[in-house]
């Protein structure tokens, strides 16, 4: 199949964030559902959809490839590696085409603010309101339907300069338990996807290896196909002893959020239930065994498929054993080029493992059971002594990163590392340890184009935010009052997130004449269920939603005046960054990444100030910051609006962080 170089692309954006797109040429016509972030955007207007002729690359199907601009096709007998090379070339070309498409827009007048667009038009609130489907009283799950009957005024997003292109592109492979949006439990999944896309945009080849969970929505994996079956070494318990055999493993591939992804699972789920179940974690299988198997199967696939990535980036304890296995079993057995990086998202779980349990990798744990490798020193003299996967990953990796500079400091100098603090204090470890701040996906989180909002808005057309607040107030049955500050918490409800402070903030906000909205769940959510069913049941200024909905989360961020993040510890945190992106003002406890990203209005340079912070873990400390925010909203409206607009312009994207990661990649790739 060969497609002409001129392809007509047209479509309209649906409320599910997808485009209905038709490709037209003399030989082929087909309809596809594609996530708009993966391909060149077609910007809808209130009355029509722009029509453009663009160059675009469609995915390879089986052994056929399409190459735009040149009449090149491949037959089923074409060498597999040649096809893989062509896929990579097409991905890079597509990145350049997207940059070229952005350049087609007419030049705009310069602005003193990097992320501010000129005032193309000034909308009246009446014009923006047109087409909004306002929720009716007590309408259940209003967030699950379209918020509008028709497309409203749309805006180009805040816009960023095309990403810098790095010389000497590298191949980076992420090994992870999570990947947004289809396998997301916490921030780990967001980081993997956001970092992968941003590094790829700089010209590098990036792929991800992850579990093929039974619960994955397969329709969201573009071009899902079976790659191969292979035998992966694995330990089994037989007659009370661990023996080494193999497990037949299936590898699948596809695109997730535009990133090449490989998914692994047992070939026969009837004989082995690893990764089976209705959710990402908490299935009927042994999680430690499952993630040790992920580590071994990832390396085995790379070896068998003949890939030689420059970097293996391993995420948290789930993937940490990959570093041990790579250097002991694979580096001298054909998989020679990779260097390993361990990225620590949270030190709360470090992956404790008995030596016999490690045999799930096909390697007995005894070879790692020494203090200079992976032995858990807390178990010395115990029967049995244990090994620790996080420690082993730190020791064996060429570089170790964590998700913010302040959290890195807390790991080395504070108590964040717990018993592993002495390990990070060693010069050979501290020298390779880096704190790199996370970012957020500016395509996924963009109030200018977010199809889940009742009205879009920007720093130069902010009226939509007021309407988003009214929409949420009506939908949740709250008093519709723009003068009441709306405080929001969107969070997992676990002790780390400051449960007692969130509870205190609910009462304080209502007492101070504000409104409070909570969205979240977790093993500490019982207290909020009780509050929702008793003292705050049908309260006109408080709604405690003990559940989670990504759609509702978007609506809450857009409606919120204040977003509260009172974490006891927070390696990075994405909530406060999303809050800034949507023009809310964060109130945070000063720890980890929260300290790196939120600068107090009353204690920072005016050019940096973007929120309110506190240091203590008691109610009085929280109230001091929350009260300052509430009072500013009520008494200094002009200053508040200025602060909100400034936050809308903040650059919390992955651009700077991706550049920092690439610098570390290049440094360790040069090691011999």
Could you characterize what this model shows?
- The structure is a single chain.
- This protein folds into three domains: 7-103, no CATH class; 171-402, Rossmann fold (3-Layer(aba) Sandwich); 463-651, Rossmann fold (3-Layer(aba) Sandwich), CATH 3.40.50.2000.
- The chain is an alpha/beta fold and 672 residues long.
- The protein has helices at 80-103, 125-129, 187-201, 287-305, 316-330, 389-396, 405-413, 421-425, 427-430, 463-475, 499-511, 526-533, 550-559, 575-581, 592-597, 619-635, 637-648, 655-669, and strands at residues 7-13, 18-24, 29-35, 52-54, 171-175, 205-211, 222-238, 241-256, 259-266, 311-315, 339-344, 352-354, 386-388, 399-402, 433-435, 486-490, 515-520, 542-546, 562-565, 585-589, 612-614.
- Strand 1 (7-13) and strand 2 (18-24) form a beta hairpin.
- The protein is built from 18 helices and 21 strands.
Give descriptors for this structure.
672 residues, nine-stranded mixed β-sheet, Rossmann fold, alpha/beta, 19% strand
CATH superfamily of the largest domain: Glycogen Phosphorylase B
Shape: globular
CATH architecture name of the largest domain: 3-Layer(aba) Sandwich
- Can you tell me the residue ranges where pLDDT is under 50 for at least 5 consecutive residues? 1-78, 105-122
Report the sheet with the most strands, covering strand number, pairing sense and barrel closure. 9 strands, mixed
- Number of helices, where a helix is a run of at least 4 consecutive DSSP H or I residues: 18
């Amino acid at each position: 199949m060969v497609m002409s170089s001129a392809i007509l692309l047209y479509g309209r954006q649906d409320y599910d964030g997808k485009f209905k797109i038709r490709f037209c040429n003399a030989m082929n016509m087909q309809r596809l559902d594609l996530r708009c972030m993966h391909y060149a955007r077609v910007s809808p207007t209130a009355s029509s959809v722009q029509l453009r002729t663009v160059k675009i690359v469609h995915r390879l199907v089986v052994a056929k490839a399409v190459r735009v601009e040149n009449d090149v096709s491949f037959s089923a007998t074409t060498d597999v590696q040649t096809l893989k090379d062509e896929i990579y070339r097409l991905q890079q070309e597509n990145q350049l085409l997207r940059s070229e498409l952005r350049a087609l827009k007419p030049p705009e007048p310069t602005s003193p603010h990097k992320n501010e667009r000129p005032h193309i038009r000034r909308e009246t609130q009446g014009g923006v309101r047109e087409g909004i489907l306002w929720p009716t009283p007590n309408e259940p799950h209003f967030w699950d339907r379209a918020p509008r009957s028709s497309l409203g005024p749309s805006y180009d997003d805040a816009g960023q300069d095309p990403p810098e292109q790095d010389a000497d592109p590298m191949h980076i492979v992420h090994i992870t338990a999570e990947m947004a949006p289809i396998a997301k439990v916490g921030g780990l999944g967001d980081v993997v996807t956001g970092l992968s896309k941003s590094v790829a945009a700089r010209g590098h080849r990036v792929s991800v290896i992850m579990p093929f969970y039974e619960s994955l929505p397969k329709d969201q994996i573009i071009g899902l196909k079976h790659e191969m079956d292979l035998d992966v070494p694995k330990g089994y318990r037989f007659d009370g002893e661990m023996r080494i055999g193999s497990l037949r493993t299936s590898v699948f591939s596809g695109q997730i959020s535009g990133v090449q992804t490989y998914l692994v699972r047992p070939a026969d789920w009837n004989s082995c239930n690893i990764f089976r179940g209705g959710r990402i974690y908490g299935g009927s299988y042994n999680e430690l065994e499952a993630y040790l198997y992920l580590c071994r199967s990832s390396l085995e696939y790379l070896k068998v498929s003949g890939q030689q990535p420059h970097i293996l980036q391993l995420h948290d304890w789930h993937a940490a054993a990959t570093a041990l296995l790579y250097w002991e079993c694979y580096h001298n057995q054909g998989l020679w080029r990779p260097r390993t990086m361990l990225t620590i998202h949270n030190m709360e779980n470090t992956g404790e493992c008995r030596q016999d349990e490690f045999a799930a990798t096909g390697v007995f744990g005894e070879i790692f059971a020494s203090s200079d490798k992976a032995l858990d020193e807390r178990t010395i003299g115990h029967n049995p002594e244990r090994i620790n996967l996080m420690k082993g990953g730190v020791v064996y990796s060429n570089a170790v990163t964590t998700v913010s500079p302040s959290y890195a400091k807390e790991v080395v100098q504070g108590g964040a590392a717990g018993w592993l603090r002495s390990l990070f204090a060693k010069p050979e470890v501290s020298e390779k340890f880096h704190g790199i701040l996370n970012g957020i996906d500016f395509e996924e989180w963009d109030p200018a184009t977010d199809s889940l909002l009742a009205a879009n808005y920007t720093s130069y057309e902010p009226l939509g935010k007021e309407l988003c607040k009214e929409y949420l107030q009506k939908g949740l049955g709250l008093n519709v009052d723009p003068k009441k500050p709306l405080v929001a918490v969107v969070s997992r409800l676990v002790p780390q997130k400051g449960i007692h402070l969130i509870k205190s903030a609910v009462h304080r906000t209502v007492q101070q004449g504000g409104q409070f909205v909570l969205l979240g769940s977790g093993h500490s959510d019982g207290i909020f269920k009780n509050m929702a069913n008793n003292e705050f049941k049908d309260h006109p200024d408080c709604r405690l939603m003990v559940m989670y909905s990504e759609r509702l989360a978007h609506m809450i961020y857009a409606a919120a005046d204040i977003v509260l993040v009172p974490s006891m510890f927070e390696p990075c945190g994405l909530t406060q960054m999303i809050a800034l992106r949507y023009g809310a003002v964060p109130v945070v406890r000063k720890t980890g990444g929260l300290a790196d990203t939120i600068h107090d209005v009353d204690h920072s340079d005016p050019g940096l100030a973007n929120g309110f912070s506190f240091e203590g873990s008691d109610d009085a400390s929280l109230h001091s910051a929350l009260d300052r925010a509430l009072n500013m909203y009520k008494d200094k409206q002009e200053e508040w609006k200025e602060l909100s607009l400034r936050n809308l312009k903040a650059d919390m994207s992955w651009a700077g962080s991706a550049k920092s990661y690439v610098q570390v990649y290049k440094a360790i790739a040069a090691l011999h």
